Structures are given as C-alpha cells and as structure tokens.
Amino acid sequence: MSESKFSGNEPIEKKSTEVKIMDRRGSINSSNTIGDGISKPSFNWSQLRKKSFSKIRLIKGKFLVIVTGAGHGLGRSIAGLAFQDQGIFAQAFSGSKVIMVDKDMDALNETSGKKMRQFLKHRKIDVVLECIDLMNLTETKNFLNDLVAKNDQDYEHIVFVNNTSTLGNISQTLMENENLEELEEYWRLNITSRIYLTTQICKLFPFSKKTVVHTARTESTTASEYMGLSNIATSAFDMFGQTFAKENPTIRVLYFTPNLLDTKRCRKIVEECPNKDLCESIQQSIDQGTLETPLDAAKKMSRILEEYEFTQGEVLRINLKNNNIEIKNNNIENDS
Known about the structure:
Elements: E1 20-23, E2 63-68, H1 73-81, E3 97-102, H2 105-112, H3 114-122, E4 126-131, H4 137-149, E5 157-162, H5 180-204, E6 209-215, H6 228-247, E7 252-257, H7 264-272, H8 276-288, H9 294-307, E8 315-321, E9 324-328, E10 333-335
Helix pairs in contact: 1-9, 4-5, 5-6, 7-8
C-alpha cells in the first residue's frame, strides 16, 4: 500500500479535518494545534529477538488502538506515534482507528493536533477523542457500551494501552492517611477501572487478535516512604497482568516500565513528597538532564511491539534501565 511521508512540515490544507470528539460531560471541542512528525529511533534492538514458543506479532491489518491517559506525558507520545509512516502501526490498513481517552479535552486536542488529523485522514484512519473521567465508573461503562455500538467486529488487531495512573497522596505515609473516601477513589481509578477496561475491551472483540500494554513508572516500582499508594497499585497491577496472561494465553501482554520520565509527575514528587532521598535523586536527574523524554520512551515501546515475538500465556516485562533492556518472563531473564 502506498503511503505518503509525513515530516511535520507540509502546508496546512484550508479544508478543515473532521474528528469525532466524545465528551461525557456534554461539551464538544475542536483544535487547530499543530502536531509533530515522529520517526523511529536508530539504536540497535537486536537483544529483543528472543526464542519464543508461540509467535505472536503485529504486522499488518485493520487496527483499533485505544490509549488511556492520552492527554499528557507518555500516553500523549504513544498516541502520537500511532499510525505514523514510521510509527507503531505504520502498516495499518485504511479503516483503522485510534481512540484517545483522557479526562482533559483540551489536552486531547493538543495530542491529536491538526497536522496529525490531516495525515491520518489522508490514510483513511479515524481519530476519536473520548473525554472520560475513569474514576467515574458510570462514565467508564458508558464508554464501553459505545465502543461496541460504534465499532464493527472486523478489526484484525485490538491494541489497548492501559496508561492511566496517579500518584495519590504523597504528603502522608500509609499510616497517616485516614481519608477513606480519598483511598477509595484512588483504588477505583488506579486498579478497579484499569482491570475492568482491560477485561471488557478484550471480551468485546472476541474475533480479533488482542494486545494489552500496561505502563508503569519507575519511581513507583521500588518501595519508598510516602509513595505507598502508587507502590501498591503498581505491584497489584503487575500481578494482575501475570494472572490475566495465564488465563488468556491468546492475548499478548506487555508490562512496560520506562526510565524516569521528564514529566509533571516527577516534578510533583520533588515539590510535594517529604521523602528527601527520593526527591534529591529525582532532582539530580533533572539538573543533569538525564530524565528520559516521553517521546523517546514511546519510540522504544513501539519497537518492542513491532519486533518482539511474544510467548503465549506470559507477560513480557520490559524495564528500561539507563537505556539498557531488562527482559523478564517465565522463560527469559536478560539484564543487559
């Protein structure tokens, strides 16, 4: 299939580009934000090609890609890479669709960008913006109902990037936090809705090949004072992914942890968390300019999805450490 190259420098067409925008709170928005062209990284990823007992790969076909937390940080970069000529699903057929989910409609409009919309329209790929607060379980259920009603069952690939997560209260230890309502809301967003979305999206498309990507944040993968909520949610979701893969061996599951990212999240920890050692460590990375950009992390994830042969019934756990790759599943352990 012939595809035009997208450099990010093409002239803007005068004709407006249609984009479907769903706001669960009743508002309809549009944006003229200019998107950026994105290309693949040039580094060597040969270490990702490992023996697999059952090859599961994404190559070509009609895709439905759903990205939560698509308005900011890593989620924005992942959504921005979708369907570019040299992006995650560069060989997706016309009729494919990317659904970007976030509770901030302005941020979603910035993610989608006019350039991106025009380019994807040229390839006959739809962009849908879903403004949803995933803490609200009614909104979450309505989103899933609409997903069935507004999408056919002829997608060859379903890719769900489960990227929504929050820090919670990082000014108090677990013993100090006595706000039961705050705790319940945190678990609802960071565990309940994430599990429910994963299981239901996979169930709604029984005839499609399915890939689930769970993202974690490196600052939440090690037990730290005042980071208890995020630590617990990260650990719990890791175990969920392993169990889910065992129960559903035909679904490929990727658990992706990038390096420390240059995002508002890291700066919030420095500003609000009383954990002096953690804050000093993050501040040092900020001062030295060693934080990884969300775009670089998204590029690495795209190469993993494209090149790695997953094993059925296992979670591929990728932990990027100082630009090295740590690969772990039941049969592989390789710390480069």
